[in-house]
Amino acid sequence: MRILKILIRRTKLYVTGAVVTSMLSNISQMVYMLYVGELVNRIEERTGIDKTLIIILGCFLITNAVTVYLKHYFGRYAAEKMAHTLRMGYIGNLLKYKKKTDTGAVMSQVQNELSHADEYLSNTFFDITDLLLTGVLVFFFLIFQNVVLTLVIFIPTVLILLYVKWSSRRLSGIVLKALDAKEKMNRVSYSLVHAFPAVKVYNGDEMCIDTYEKSLNSWGEQEADMERLNALYNSLSGILSRVPLLLLLTVGGYMVLKGNIMLGTLIVFLNMQNTLKQTIMNLPSWISGFKVFVTNLDKIQNIEV
Amino acid sequence: MIELKEVTFSYDNKKIISDLTLSIKKGEKIGIMGESGCGKSTLLRLMAGLYRADQGTVTVDGESEPEKISGKVSVVMQSPMLLPLSIYDNITMGHEYSSEQVEKVVKMARLSSWVDTLPEGIQTYLGDRADELSGGQAQRIAIARAMCKDSEVLLLDEPASALDSENSRSVLDAIMEYATDKTVVHVTHQLKHLDGYDRIYVLKDGVLQ
User: Fold this and answer.
1) What is the ipTM of this complex?
2) Which of A54, A132, A278, B163 would staple B168 via disulfide (CB 3.0–4.6 Å)?
3) Average pLDDT of span A262-289
4) What is the per-residue DSSP string for A108-146?
5) Domains in chain B: how many in total?
């Protein structure tokens, strides 16, 4: 983590720029959505749409487009600057100790870690930071709009996430078994080639064919099991992923009919629910990717020169 | 018992065995020495029916077709050539033998003390354990396999070359104890392994000297 802090400190201007523009683009998007909701409400109430509302909508749309451009500009620049600072910092450190160390050996020790960290910084770090920031802001924005509807999206999504975690753990067990069976089958065929003289002299053909067929069948069964479970879990999670939207439509529609919320609020929720859902669903993979990145940085930091 | 008449064998356009003639009587113990790559193993494989001679004939116990020769001999190679099966299957190679016979060869190959310590004994699956076996244990399984087939002709291709001196002595003693009345051809580059053999040849430039 120390290296990450140093990198952020050395590129603070660009990092701050990226974070601020990301927040601004999200805020402008949310305010724009609020005004879209307002537009829908006015149409529903037949109170008429004035010019000011259309101008405000246009302004926020333009603001959003500009901030998205700036966000990408600052994000990309900050990412490249951080990756460059990491590479140069590392090389500089090696050169400093070049007289008392075998730089080639040291370099090769963390070659993979360096390129992974470099790639993560360049391609992933700011995209994930942006998406995470968007998710958090959208969550609070929606909570502020309506607690019940936010929970209608949030709770089922968390349950789906837990289901996905559980099913992928079960699937990974089956995948390991299938890989094991495949490895066994390959080992059998390799052994048959290697031990062919013994098989010929001792007339072991029948036993070998039998062994190979057994290992082939075992692998086939494991593969079939894996594919069956894969199809089952994936189709189930495909259906479950629609549940939050379905619940939102049901509960939200009921609240609109009862007069508890305006139609515009429901429209806002329908537009923003996917952002919140994606953030929650992707959070575990972002965390694990970030952990790998930090581990790589720690390895680079702890290398002995 | 074994007759090689004017046998010539080439590999990759290189003559390995050249016009070789050799006659081995039943019960004889023959040693063949030579430098690495001189063709000792090739000669043994010709006798085992694993290769077909380009010219000349190889006859073992009246058979001259390689496929039939293979059925007449037992071979122990430098590498034990184990399969990912149980110890039992590696010894019997899928053939029906009485449990007494298998037990006997396990004892003769000096495997019993190790096999008895295994939780599943002789039925222990070697697939995942093959790497854990010592060279001596693996080679003893190969010897037990040869003993189980109990052919009149035993062909040995440096069976102890990859073993330490203690293990190699033990393995060779086990073979000689079993093969007192068998015809043995032992290919090696170590003269000390041929103690007590009837004839010892040196293979050089494809010719026996």
Assistant:
1) 0.78
2) B163
3) 90
4) HHTHHHHHHHHHHIIIIIHHHHHHHHHHHHHHHHHHHH-
5) 1
